[in-house]
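FIELD: query
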Amino acid sequence: MKILLTGSLGHIGLPLAQLLHQHELTIITSKEDRTAAIKALYLSNLLKTLTGKSTQQHIQEKIIEKAKEQLSTTGLSVSEITYGLGFDYPQSFSKLFKAKTQLAPLEFRNSFN
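FIELD: result
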């Protein structure tokens, strides 16, 4: 998916930019093609209208999906998975994972054994 935004992207922060990259979303900035530009707020509102979910919810769902896949099919540690998904702290990832799945990452992994 390609998303065209105008202006500076400094306000979105590095973690979001990493997540967009990791989840195969591309942000293109162009001052020359303002007619094709989609403002971030418009895009977020459109996504919410079309799907009933916020951008954050979509990103979190994709993160949890990838984490589940890695926990169930690889021997990577939770820390390795955490950093690979763009988190700086395993505690932040574990908190999100538990909130979305009602299981800690290791509990989820152990459910396959």
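FIELD: remark
The mean pLDDT is 77.
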